[in-house]
Amino acid sequence: MPIHQPQQRTDVQSDRTGVQQAEAALVEHYPRLVRLAYVVLPPGLGRHRRVLTAHAVVQRALPAAGSKASGPRVPAQSRRTGPPAGSEGASADRVPAHPAYGWVRLRVLRAALAHERRPRWWPGRLPAPAALRPALPVVWGLRLFPRAGGVDELALDRALSAVDGPVRAAFALQLLEGLDESGVRELLAGAAVANAADAVRRAARLGRPDRAEAQAMLRSGEFDPCTVQTRPSDLLRRRHRVRAAAVAAALCVVAGGLAVAVEQGANGPGEDRSPAGVLAPVLDPAELMRTAAERWADTSRVDFTAWPARGGRTEDDALLGRALRAWAEPPESVRVSTTPGTAAVPPAEPPQLLFADEVDGAAVVLFHDSADRVVRYAEPLSGAGGAALDFARTDDADVTTGAAVVVSRTAEGARFLLAPWIAESTTRDLLAPDTPGRPLEVGPDGVTAEVPRPAAGGACDAWPVIQLRSSERIVEKHAFLLTDLGELAPTHLTYMPKPGRGTPARQPREATGPDALLAWARTACSLRTLAGSGVRSVNNWAFAEQKLPEGGTSADWVCTRADTWRGPGRVLVQFLAPAASPADPATVVADRDDTALCSKFGQHVLAGTHWRADSGRWYVLGAGSRAVTGIRATGEVRGAAGGPTLAVRAPRDADVELTASLREGGTLTAVH
């Protein structure tokens, strides 16, 4: 007995010392831990809730006073309160080596991953239990967002939103914490990740080919929840709540009595455990957020959050209530459709009202919520048809991708609700690049006349698009193209011109110039293969121009890249041979899904095709992007050429492999 008593005191002292060291490590490395939590947390929370939840996760990492959870055990004689001296003094990126930091990091990782885990019995449409847990910090009257990054940071954020929590965690632990693969696997296993090795393998594919640049972006302000921007919440709704405060106070006494009754009958037959019952305060039409009419002209965030509520039925609480209840728990009579990668879960907080009115024989309501989704509810004004509920992702929408939403679609065409910053709208046919656009009529509520839909099958003899111009109050002389691919959010079309001699690499630009329209006239019909796949934007990159053998005429090589809202992209490489008509379709020579090719993360491309000259002779042609210094053909035919293009005689069906050498070193194989 005398032997065990001192040991118990030593354990208690060790626990107390360990918790003190963990607290010191948490305080000293708080920004690092919050950034890690922010990257791991589900993007579906929305940026405001994700910022606050990241801080809450880190602040709850220490065990509560009086809890049975013990802190990290340390020897009793150790009195250091943080990582060893100099562990971060030389470099802010060096990972703290003290065990207390590792213990806190593991608890943060477990808590962040819990926000994506649902028990088997949990309703699939509700957020994970951890996401519903109230926690500090709480911010009233303000919305918080990390500083907006550029196009590259946005692409990385979309790529992270397309994978699950363990993959995001593996990616962050490697690039932010500098752990090797074995260290990441061990830490994920300690955080109860079922298949840590698979998460590490999938994370290794993110940010390729330039992982150093991906690391720099992950450490930028786009992913820093400690340096945030603010904007107010809905001011009119806040005033409404202030007026209702007196009534709420008067009801507190009644609520106290009801609480006892509810507790006594918690498991009774009258309890409402449905999503609509659980989320009743969120689904109150009186709580809907409404943006001021001129907000778009006075904010740096020009997206769906700047849209005012428009339409003749924005005060119809009965209609709005039906739409909200259908969103929370759609009955069998409601047809539900989602853009790929879009969660159809109920809103976590009162959504923003965008539109409510009657269009083409239906009452239509449009919402936008903090999870960056646009939701469309439509019910027929007459007849026995059921209602429809459509979900679409709108992550980090901007002036162009947040410029229009389909408000009504028929067999003949679609009507769009345009953003309040649109000053001019026209329609044009992509297959007629020399034909000017025609004015598109827009009603006072922002709803357009019906725009014909592109042909989904059969002959592709027209491709209608809408050309919009932004108000000069936000940007001067900015026109852009949108096309309807069968979803709520139309797709933004862009163009990247041919490489010029001695000029730096170019960036995508709006597809409204003559060269862009000519390229899209040859490639527009390939857009049919992208319908219904959740495409955010499509860029035509004219990556090479080649003089053809036997005559010296030129052909263009175009990489058509489709980026989805959820992150992954699809690439079509197309060969534009000389044609009699400006609308002759190009030849698709390569088709690749889930690839970084032809993006910031895949800047080099090589492709080849068989081509028949007017003489009847067949050639193998190859072309690469600007960094290609030579191309070699092997297989049934051999040949080589310096520079970014190659042409060698070859039988029509010859099996040939193309490889290229790059200016900075390394090789590139042709995409198929």
What does this molecule look like?
With 672 residues, this protein is α+β, with helices and mostly antiparallel strands. Helices cover 26% and strands 25% of the residues. The protein has 14 helices and 27 strands. Strands 10, 11, 13, 14, 15, 16, 17, 18, 19 and 20 form a ten-stranded mixed β-sheet that branches. Strands 3-7-6-5-4 form a five-stranded mixed β-sheet, covered by helices on one side. Helix 1 (4-28) crosses helix 4, helix 2 packs parallel to helix 4 (99-114) and helix 7 crosses helix 9. It is globular. Residues 1-14, 73-92, 234-238 and 240-273 have low confidence and may be disordered.
In short, what is this structure?
The protein is α+β, with helices and mostly antiparallel strands and 672 residues long. The strands form six sheets. Strands 10, 11, 13, 14, 15, 16, 17, 18, 19 and 20 form a ten-stranded mixed sheet that branches. Strands 3-7-6-5-4 form a five-stranded mixed sheet, covered by helices on one side. A four-stranded antiparallel sheet has the order 24-23-26-27, with no helix packed on it.
Question: What are its keywords?
Answer:
14 helices; single chain; disordered N terminus; globular; 5-stranded mixed β-sheet; alpha+beta; 672 residues; 26% helix; 10-stranded mixed β-sheet
